[in-house]
Amino acid sequence: MRSKILSKQVPLLTVVLSGLVFSIALLLYFIPRSSVQGGSALVIESAVTSQKQEQAIFGLPVRLKIPEINIDASVEYVGLTPDGAMDVPKEIANVAWFSFGTRPGETGSAVIAGHYGRKNGKLSVFHNLDKLRKGDKLYIEDDKGLIISFVVRESRIYDPKADASGVFGSSDGKAHLNLVTCEGAWDNISKTYPKRLVVFTDKEIE
Q1: In which element (H, E) is residue 12 found?
Q2: What are residue 65's phi and psi, to 5 degrees?
Q3: H-helix or E-strand containing 112?
Q4: 44-69: pLDDT as tens digits
Q5: What CATH topology corresponds to 12-203?
Q6: Predicted pLDDT of residue 85
Q7: Where does residue 33 rank: exposed (0-12), middle (13-18), buried (19+ CB within 10 A)?
Q8: Given CB 3.0 to 4.6 Å as the disulfide criterion, which of 58, 111, 116, 136 pairs with 152?
Q9: pLDDT tens, residue by residue, 32-45
Q10: According to DSSP H, which parts of 18-140 are helical?
Q11: DSSP assignment of 168-180, as one string?
Q12: DSSP state string for 57-69
């Protein structure tokens, strides 16, 4: 049975792999066709140009490093599964960047997910994510060799039925990286964990 974070405003995004389960909500953006005319078209063109300029600066993430909890993990790129769920890293030691979203370092909220719990006696990559505190730093290395620093702002525990739309979206004009995993004790009846943990971080100002 899949656990869910329910929202009346956003589609459900549920993640499942080998008994390790976490759920997060995906905020989808769209532009009505009727708005793409006149000045609106110029605004959209400007936004696309800005995004391309940012992508020219920030490459694709290849490693996530969190010294505070001894994480040095490879980054896999994932999208959505056929049933509309965010895919997950194939290896429990790796993390997964949601490649349909923002690149780490770009304006907006990039999202990286990792497994929680044990598999074959080994701890998953984000098993100790709850130990991060405000002010702790983490680093993304991209495929251009650029190191991007982020600082933990806060951690939040979500109920599976909570609206978690803020995990994937931001409108403050800043760059964020949000880390997602499960929390709590495994429930053999529901085959899931009771809570969801999200660590919100901000790009460090140089």
Answers
A1: strand 12-17
A2: -125, 125
A3: strand 108-113
A4: 343 444 555 565 688 999 999 999 99
A5: Sortase; Chain: A; (2.40.260)
A6: 62
A7: exposed
A8: 136
A9: 233 233 444 443 34
A10: 39-57
A11: T---SS-EEEEEE
A12: HS--EEEEEEGGG
